[in-house]
Specification:
Helix content: 25-40%
Largest sheet: 6 strands, parallel
Strand order of the largest sheet: 3-2-1-4-5-6
Bound molecules: adenosine monophosphate, manganese (II) ion
Number of strands: 12
Radius of gyration: 19 Å
Structural class: alpha/beta
Order of helices and strands: HEHEEEHEEHHHHHEEHHEEHEEH
Distance between the termini: 52 Å
Oligomer: single chain
Length: 324
Amino acid sequence: MNKLYLELKNKIEAANSIIVFSHVSPDGDTLGSNLAISLMIENCFNKKVDSVFAGSLPSLYSYLPDFNRFKDVQTIPSDKKYDLAIAVDVASKDRMISGTVIFDNAKTNVNIDHHKTNTGYGNINIIDGEAACVGIILYRIFSEWNYKIPLDVARCIYTSLLTDTGGFRYENTGVECFNLAAELVKLGVSPMEEYRACYETKPQSMVQFQAYIVSNTLFYNNGKIAFAKITRSDMSKFDAIDEYTEGIVEVLRSSKNVEIAAILKETKEGWTKVSLRSKNTNIIPVVLEFGGGGHTFAAGCTIKKPIPIAFDKLLKRIQSEIPA
Ligand code: AMP
Ligand code: MN
Ligand code: MN
């Protein structure tokens, strides 16, 4: 067995208290992966696991098995010492927000991730920057452990795969994704049911909010750059919650001309959370300059400035990536 997978198995067997972390602004990969490993540990090792999120928990993913087990990290005492802490899909430690101290205080901490920008902040680091999603890495681990994967776990891994490949469309979609999908379907997953649960259950106000934001997009450099702003007042107009912005930036990128698309969203603190997508440009250097991270064509950062200032800075920086 892969040495790291065995080490993780030994740590789980020896642990009396286990916590699994998702990243702030949780998405389908971090939530699906969290549930997959939490349920796997409870099923196969008969241990109790605390599954926690940071920020707000998007109800878009409430169809996932045992979704109600998620606890807000803020409800965990910050001085609680776990035997084992596991982070899934967490590019940098600070993305666990107040969970970072709990992660650090654990007897052993494990970092399972697929971001190329991950620095390897765990005692055990299982990182593959080429993996399309963390669910793929978990499936490799579970397969080597040689336990049968329950349907609930398979469904969670499917959501991780489905969402991080953009429905098997992004550049990270390769042979291993389709092989894994086939294995998950063999375990009983229904692609149609998961697709509908994941993408076709939006509240009406979310569809209208997204249309409004998209229709106010600003284009630059002959339409190669698309920038959309989302202020708190836009959000309150539609009673929008954080998860309502999910998927907008991909709509902007769907324009034929667009090479780089950005969503600039005002945070509760008045700062600017940026979601960036590109077609062919490596945008990692851009977000690293602003203290963020991510993948080659999908990355993000939070700029601690109000939207108008962040907008100008980011636009200038992105324009420098686009040939005239
Ligand atoms: P998003 O635009 O929020 O969907 O994020 C796109 C990708 O970039 C995801 O893989 C995120 O994990 C990553 N990402 C977004 N914001 C940050 C950040 N502040 N620091 C590190 N990675 C980030
Ligand atoms: Mn993620
Ligand atoms: Mn991911």
